[in-house]
Design a protein that fits this description.
By secondary structure, the protein is an alpha/beta fold. It contains 11 helices and 13 strands. The structure holds nicotinamide-adenine-dinucleotide and UDP-4-deoxy-4-formamido-beta-L-arabinopyranose. The site of nicotinamide-adenine-dinucleotide has 27 residues, from α1, α5 and β5.
């Protein structure tokens, strides 16, 4: 059985990916410091998939701990999810974001050179594109100056991977640039666990409908879009998880065209904030309390992916629509509330 190391594997996207990898017959080892996830997630991965992943509690900034992790588990490939991810927090605590997001990657790359690791899949983000001039955004769209320290860490990590692949032909890496992940596993056993007040739209919607928040604030309805609200490419977390399975297989089967590759992982469809609200209301049967307020500083008007490269080159396509995202997010919220 091929052993895959998932850093940040008890987190939102990592836990869904663990389930899909186990289903495909991989052995999963999770390394996570549990700073933004819960150990109970292991029980739930086991309940869904029938197998409990190995778990190492580790802060990836800990070089010695990383050495011990590789000495014990010697993975054949790595999926590197672990990172700090709150855009707003990164503006206030930039050093923490540079420390965690950069040093974790550096430690993993250092260890990868000492073991026969085939490659690493990296969690990147559409945030690297800023507001692109032409939509949909392709992989050839140039990066724009990052809007936040968080976004900058994603750009720098991609550059580190690219430079390292250039200098070391034995290293293979794939960056997956996620658009806006949403939804939860259909079992409602795993999902997103936002800490405190969610900054992201979908958990804020479900918490409002559950009575945890009074109302959703819609940030601006005067954008140059059909209904005036901002547009994003929301992707079901299970579709996103499946993209990782495909990427890992590509590494293990030596199918890469270059030893550093990067793909847009979205649906190719953009939805406005109001369309997301309507889809949620339809899927949940709830009426959502919301109010339009000022635009949020730093928000872009619209972004959605050109997914043709990922579709043709990876043979992967998002299959789940917005209503399925909302339906699963709502079922997960109801489970959390219990
Ligand atoms: P998450 O916070 O749910 O998962 C990240 C996991 O990493 C958590 O379990 C956390 O405990 C762990 N972690 C954090 N710092 C660590 C450290 N120093 N050592 C070990 N473990 C550590 O986040 P997620 O939404 O699953 O995101 C996964 C990855 O995808 C991140 O790299 C994130 O930047 C990226 N991403 C997320 C989104 C999104 O909207 N969720 C979008 C684009 C990219
Ligand atoms: C979506 C839309 C808001 C909350 C962020 C990161 C990005 C990536 C994904 C990691 C926007 C609107 C939101 C609310 C609202 N993460 N909104 N009321 O900003 O596209 O992307 O998460 O890489 O890097 O920047 O996602 O979910 O915050 O917002 O009206 O209470 O919903 O203005 O148009 P965003 P989001």
């Amino acid at each position: 059985m091929k052993k895959i190391l998932l850093t940040g594997g008890t987190g939102y996207i990592g836990s869904h990916t663990a389930v899909e990898l186990i289903r495909e017959g991989f052995e999963v080892v999770i390394a996570d410091d549990l700073s933004n996830s819960n150990i109970d997630v292991l029980d739930n991965i086991q309940e869904i998939s029938g197998t409990r992943p190995s778990f190492v509690r580790l802060d990836l900034r800990d070089k010695k701990g990383c050495q011990a992790l590789f000495a014990q588990h010697a993975p054949e490939a790595i999926i590197h999810f672990a990172a700090k991810k709150a855009v707003g927090e990164s503006v206030h605590q930039p050093l923490l974001y540079y420390d965690v997001n950069l040093n974790s990657l550096l430690n993993l790359l250092e260890q990868s050179e000492k073991y026969p690791v085939k490659g690493i899949v990296f969690s990147s983000s559409c945030t690297v594109y800023g507001q692109p001039e032409i939509l949909p955004v392709t992989e050839l769209t140039p990066f724009q100056a990052a809007e936040s320290p968080y976004g900058n860490t994603k750009q720098i990590c991609e550059e580190i991977l690219h430079d390292n692949c250039r200098s070391n032909p034995n290293l293979n890496a794939i960056s997956l640039r996620y658009f806006n992940p949403a939804g939860a596993h259909p079992s409602a056993l795993i999902g997103e666990l936002p800490l405190g007040v969610p900054a992201n739209l979908v958990p804020f919607i479900t918490q409002t409908a559950a009575g945890i928040r009074e109302e959703l604030k819609v940030f601006g309805d005067d954008y140059p879009t059909p209904d005036g609200t901002a547009i994003r490419d929301y992707i079901h977390v299970v579709d996103l998880a499946l993209a990782h399975v495909v990427a890992v297989k590509r590494l293990l089967e030596n199918k890469q065209k270059n030893n550093y590759e990067f793909f847009n992982i979205g649906t190719g469809k953009g939805y406005s904030v109001l369309e997301v609200i309507r889809a949620f209301e339809k899927a949940s049967g709830q009426t959502l309390a919301y109010r339009v307020v000022e635009r949020r500083a730093g928000d872009i008007v619209q972004i959605y992916a050109d997914t043709s490269f990922a579709n043709s080159e990876l043979g992967w396509k998002a299959e789940r629509g917005l209503e399925e995202m909302m339906d699963s997010a709502w079922k997960w919220q109801l489970k959390l509330k219990k």
